[in-house]
TrEMBL record:
Keyword ATP-binding: yes
Lineage: Bacteria, Candidatus Ryaniibacteriota
Family, per entry: Belongs to the ABC transporter superfamily. Ycf16 family.
Protein's UniProt name: Fe-S cluster assembly ATPase SufC
Taxonomic source organism: Candidatus Ryanbacteria bacterium RIFCSPLOWO2_02_FULL_45_11c
Matching InterPro entries: AAA+_ATPase, ABC_transporter-like_ATP-bd, FeS-cluster_ATPase_SufC, P-loop_NTPase
Length: 240
């Protein structure tokens, strides 16, 4: 079971920002995508899931051989693709508990009543070091960067997607929070494929990626194993 990108070209507001990216994320693997700011990493993953601002002008997204390039985002989600956004939106008036319960029902088809779901939710929140009172707060309203990222990790656990696109999940996390979130990703990675966007090697030290790709100016310039990430940490990005 693979999520495969074939010759992906992506435009934003009429400007091409991804120029022919091809890569494969097998289920059960962790693939890291690194690169400097503005290289097209976030544009790529947003386009995969179908964000309306990002237009796929050429290429295909294949899920187990099925072309899902242009199907609606909610159908991609139901097929098991999850996006952890770099800047997740605030949903004023909607509690974390209500949002997660409704999303869980829509994605899994399993409708739990309030009390059993709340028990499951609080148990997973405690594993992530989250205050269970957060379940009653409005989604991301007044949340710190670290709280937002832990909420994204919580969704990953609850929804159990086939493939997860994680856009800078390590951003804004202190050392302890990074360890918890990384351990959570590692715990679920055997059951799903992970495409992880990051600038730093800290989280990769926990995860031990199977592949590392460097994206610069919309194209992959280098690919390798975790040793490539270590090289980037020491020497910075170089266009070859």
């Amino acid at each position: 079971m693979n999520l495969e990108l074939q010759n992906m070209h992506v435009s934003v507001d009429g400007k091409e920002v991804v120029r022919g990216v091809s890569l494969c994320v097998p289920r059960g693997s962790v693939v890291a995508l690194m690169g400097p700011n503005g290289s097209g990493k976030s544009s790529l993953v947003n386009a995969i899931l179908g964000h309306p601002r990002y237009t796929i002008t050429e290429g295909r997204v294949l899920l187990c051989g099925e072309d899902i390039t242009h199907i609606p985002p909610h159908q991609k989600a139901k097929k098991g693709i999850f996006l952890s956004m770099q800047n997740p939106p605030t949903l004023a008036g909607i509690t974390v508990s209500s949002f997660l319960r409704n999303a869980f029902s829509a994605l899994t088809g399993c409708v739990l009543s309030v009390v059993p779901f709340q028990k499951m939710l609080e148990a997973e929140m405690e594993k992530l070091g989250m205050d269970t009172e957060m379940a009653g707060r409005h989604v991301n309203e007044g949340f710190s960067g670290g709280e937002k990222k832990r909420l994204e990790a919580l969704q990953l656990i609850l929804f159990k997607p086939n493939f997860a696109l994680l856009d800078e999940t390590d951003a804004g996390l202190d050392v302890d929070a990074l360890r918890i979130v990384a351990e959570t990703i590692k715990r679920v990675s055997a059951q799903m494929g992970i495409l992880l966007i990051t600038h730093y090697t800290r989280i990769l030290e926990y995860l031990g990626p199977d592949e590392v790709h460097i994206l610069q100016d919309g194209v992959i310039t280098r690919s390798g194993g975790k040793e490539l990430a270590e090289e980037i940490e020491k020497q910075g990005y170089k266009i070859l």
